[in-house]
Structures are given as structure tokens and as C-alpha cells.
Amino acid sequence: MHEKMTNRSIEKQNKKDKTATSEHIQDGKDGLRVNKLKGKVSWNKTFAALKHRNYRLWFWGQMTSLVGSWMQTTAQGYLIFQLTHSPAFLGYVGFASGIPAWLFMLYGGVIADRVPRRTVLMITQSFMMILAMILAVLTFTNTVQPWHIILLAFGLGVANAFDSPARQAFVLELIEGREDLVNAIALNSTMFNSATAIGPAVAGLTYAAFGPAWCFTINGVSFIGVIIALVMMRIKYEPTERKSKNALAELKEGMSYVLKSQKIIRTVIILVVFFALFGISFATLVPAWAVKILHGNAATNGYLQSARGLGALIAALFIATVSHLKIKGKLLTFGMLSYPIFLLLFSLVHYLPVSLILLVAVGMAQILTFNVANALIQTLVSDDFRGRVMGIYSIGFFGFMPIGALIVGSFAEHMGEPAALIINSTILILVTVLVFFAVPKLKSMP
Question: Which whole number is the average pLDDT over 15-36?
């Protein structure tokens, strides 16, 4: 009985979503005629979501925390490479941090639809702070071992499995109405990639001058900023009515919604899976690349990470500026085609200045891909399923990234880092071309 009711509710929602999508597409055709101002690119529109108080608190609190997180990620990768001198161990860390996505992230999406998202985030952020401090103490006392880093990376992955769906679904609660939703998603990427540009560079310098323990300590302290911001927010929690209190039934309902919903949502999630497997996983090789290919040190590792972050920041600001325009399909197409091409070029260059320039381009294409994919899903999904759908999206990203880390780490161990990137980027080019020929509607999404 419940299953029939669930199917009927999904069918009704699908009709609503298709109507909304057709209206959205019609808006894309008529928008410039109705209001010419909406078609203009204006710098004033770049930070539109910051007019909302709750979003401002989130933006600055999360920015502080993310800088610390990138410092830890950068220092942690270089530290385990120093301890083991093995690119395979870089893959093990990536796998350990990502495998909890398979175990918990779908359930994390259910939790994000059942429990106040601010409460979930306060718990997960506090747990991440404790893990960072444990790693700092182990490093300060010179007792840290590779297995410590792998185990703590697993713990961080568990926290992220519950944090990610809640964090992505939480954006809608931070703004009033939907007018600034796409801008808020773009600004989320802006703060993430500002941290990506700043954190690794600071980590490289801090690591070289004071050692990795201080990178982990700074990360632990940085979580205080986002926790304070969450406490200060004024958010009214309005739980959605549920026909069933069974979490497993709600999880099945969310999966059924995605499988029976619009083809675009499924296609975007499939593309995200491939880019997590063969695209973003290249970042696990950066510490080894800095030492073995470019003959550098911890500072070189930081510069490479920051170059990618700088490119991502530029792209995120661009997306925020044009977020009111109905060109998501075009942006996604460009990002997904250019990303593997720039990655292929990077794999062929072994000269630091040119490598940095290419990583800026890689970072720009990467954020175009993942930011626009996220925004497209968020604009199509029903509010009742938002947490669960973002959980499925998140497992597509975080769940397959560790498998990609193992694959690229294994390739690098046996064939060398450049060969591993050549193989991965070639696979992505082929998959992207195939998908865009198979689903041409994706290119014209507003």
C-alpha cells in the first residue's frame, strides 16, 4: 500500500517537475524579451546572496573553516608521501576518506530530510575539529604513522558522509525565496575555491617553516568560525510531513524519485560519477608530481594546489556573475569538454611555470563542471526530496572519488604519474562526447 502511494506521489511530482522544467526553458527563450535587464551581466549580481543575513554568516564562517581544511589536506598528502615515498599511499588516503560515502551518505541524505540541517552540521563540524586536533597531537609528538593518517581520513569521511547532503540542502534555508538560489550555490563554490587558492599555498609555506603539525592545528581552530556562525543564525525549522517514519522506506522513495524523474538529473549524476572517477582523483597525485616530476618540495606542492584553486575561484566568480542568465547547459558542456583536455596537456608538461598556468585552466574547467552540475540538479529537484537527491549526488562525487584515487594511484605506481593522467583524461573525453551526443537536451538547459 505504501509503495503504491509512494509511486503515485512520485508520478505527481514528476509531472510538476516536467511542467516547471518546460516553464524554465520557456523562460530561457522569452526572458530577454520580457526583461532586458535580466540578460545583462552585472558585477552587482555577483554577490546577490550575501544580502541574506543567514547566508552572510554561513559564507564567512565556512570560508574560515575551508581555508583550514585545505591546509590539512595539502599537509596530510605531503606528510604521508614523506613517510612512505609511495604514490600508492596517496591513493589509500583518498580511498579511506571517501569509502564512508558508500556506507553512510545515502542515509545521510535521509537524515538531512528528517533532522534540522543546522543541528546535523554543528555535530559534523565539531567531530571534524576533534579529528584535526588528534592528528596535530600525533604529529607534534612525532608518533604519527601512515596508518594513523589513513584511519583519521576514514573518520573524516564518515563525518563528511553526513555533512555533505545536509550542507548542500541547507543552502535553500539560508536565503529568502528562490531568486538567489543559483547565486548562493555559485558563491558556495567561490568560498570553497577561495580557500582552495589560499589554503594550499599557506600550508606549503607553513609546512616548510614550522612543520605539518601547525597546519593541522590551524585547521582544528578554524572550525570554531563555522560553529559560531551556525549558532548565530535565525532559522525556523519546518519539518516535512512524512507518510512513513521508516528511514529505509524514505531512502527507497528517494532512489525511486531519481530513477523515475527527469532524464537530465540522471544524466548529470552519471557524468559526475565519471568525473569523480577519472577527473578530480588526479589531485591525489599532486604531492608526488611536485617531487618526482617537477623536482620540488612542500612549497611546490602548495603552489600546484593553489594554482588549481585560483582557476576554480575565477570560474566560481564568473558563474556567480552570470547566475541569473539561463545558460547552465552551455557552461556545463564547455566545462566537461575542456576539463579533460587541459588535464591531458598538464600531463605532458614537466616545467613548473607552464604547469601552474595549466592547473589554473584545469581549476576553471573543474568548477564549471561541478558547480553547474550541482546548480542544475538543485533547480530541478523537489523540496521534499532535496536532502535525499543531494545525498545521491554526493555519493556520486564522494563515493567514486576514492575508487578513482585507488585507480590513479595504482596506475602511477606501475606506469608513472604522466601515463596515469593521460589514460584518465582520454577516458573522460570519450565519455563526455558520448553523453552529449546521447542527451543533446543537456546542452540547452537554462
Answer: 43
- Work out how many domains the chain is built from and give that number: 1
* CB-count exposure of residue 383 (10 Å: 0-12, 13-18, 19+): exposed
Ramachandran class of 233: left when φ > 0, alpha when ψ lies in -120 to 50, beta otherwise: beta
**Least confident stretch, 126-130, 321-325, 386-390:** 321-325
Q: How many CB atoms lie within 10 A of CB 252?
A: 16
Q: Is the pLDDT of residue 390 over 90?
A: no
Identify the residue with better confidence: 47 or 128: 128
Terminal alpha carbon distance of the chain: 38
Rounded mean pLDDT of 190-209?
79
Is residue 280 included in any domain, yes or no? yes
Cell numbers 537554462: residue? 446
User: Does residue 152 lie within any of the structural domains?
Assistant: yes
What grid cell was written down for 265? 538529473
If you write DSSP's letter for every residue of 65-99 in order, what string do you get? HHHHHHHHHHHHHHHHHHHH--HHHHHHHHHHHHT
Q: Is residue 114 part of a domain?
A: yes
Within a domain: 296: yes
Q: Given this model, what pLDDT does residue 29 score?
A: 42
Tell me the CATH number at 299: 1.20.1250.20
Domain that holds residue 122: 39-235+245-250+257-444
Report CA Rg, the chain.
21
Residue 325 sits at the vertex; the CA angle it makes with 319 and 327, to the nearest 5 degrees, is: 80
